[in-house]
Amino acid sequence: MISLILQYVTIWCRYILKKANIIIGKCATHLKHSSSLAISFIIFFILLLVVINYYETRIASMTKERNNQQMLNNLNQVNEVNENNDDRMQLLPDDLIVIYNRVPKTGSTSFMGIAYELCSHNGFNVMHLNTSKNSHVMSLSDQVRFVWNVTRWTKRQPSLIHGHIAFLNFEKYGLFNPKPLYINLIRKPLDRLVSYYYFLRNGDNFRPNIVRKKQGDRRTFDQCVDLNERDCRAENLWLQIPFFCGQDSECWKPGNKWALDQAKRNLLNHYFLVGVTEYMHEFIQILEASLPQMFSGANQLYEKGTKAHLRKTFNKLRPSARTIAKIQQSRIWQMENEFYQFTLDNFNFIKDRVLIKTNQADTSNNIVYKDRGQQFFFEKIRPKN
After folding, report:
1. Annotated catalytic residue 164
2. What pLDDT, on the 0 to 100 scale, is given for residue 327?
3. Model's pTM, two decimal places?
4. What is the mean pLDDT of residues 192-196?
């Protein structure tokens, strides 16, 4: 308002100056002999110039102050928005659903030990999905029941649901909201198979007193491959691809190229994060940085070791170089390994943008990472308040 008044004053002064200039010209003509009157008009003219210059300077100063204040207000609005976002990130959405369709023998029990430790403190529910005969594929009617139960069980939301089941696309059943966030871990294909082979025979330190299916079988994995026995054939490698491919019959046909392509598409389009067992620490760090509402404190638990590496298979022997070379000649291993490398590349791409290396190392001499933090902010917010 003051600036507007000053602008009107300046316009008025310029108008007076113009009129005074005309008057001075006429007076100079008719009053050539009246020098005192001419001097008076000249003094008035100079004073008017001084007044106009003062008000123009004042207007420029006030305009600059107003612009600076506006920039400060915009910055405060940006900070306020960012602070509000930080506050909201600490609260779990009531309908958040995370599904971990865990692949067997990929470190899933170790990871879930951390999740169970966190759930009470972070305010979410954990549920294990147990299927008959540990089937990885559901009947169509069970698929519908599962999808509707998960999305309508509001008393148990937010939730983390885990189980050894193949991927289910909730959009197929007409449900777009709430849409779950899928997470998973996969492992080097041969390492996973070897671990499972010895697990069925020797058990692990998680439940050491349970008698396993192949208890008493002392044949090594190398001997099993030499004898071409069923438990170590290449077909048993075909598990991680169908877990990501889904519930369709084509997904479970070993060596199916369509299944591999579908698994890749599902990983990119439907999974929030897929890590690898060999980099579980970084997987946990990314989850904590990206979903702190659920996984805050997970990294600390992992580093303390109270819940990490919870499950170790007894008497697991590494296969010989000859056995490894024989397995790697199979088309199934090559496809499963292609999927593993595809997953690892995608995981590293995500990791490099979420985490940053430090100059420290952990007790195992591994590189320690930390969260890069927020890499964006808002500006040029309109309309102005």
Report:
1. yes
2. 96
3. 0.74
4. 95
